[in-house]
Amino acid sequence: MQYIAIGSINVEVVKKNIKNMHLAVYPPNGRVRLAAPVDVNDETIKLYTISKLAWIKRQQRKFEQQDRQSERKYIQRESHYFLGKRYLLKVAEKNARPLVQVKNKTYLEIQVRPGATTEQKHHFINEWYRTQLKTMLPALIDKWERKMGVAVEEWGVKQMKTKWGTCNTDKQKIWLNLELAKKPIHCIEYILVHEMVHLLERKHNDVFQAYMDKYLPNWRTLKDELNKLPVSHIDWEY
Question: Is domain 79-228 given the CATH code 3.40.50.720 in the classification?
Answer without folding.
Answer: no
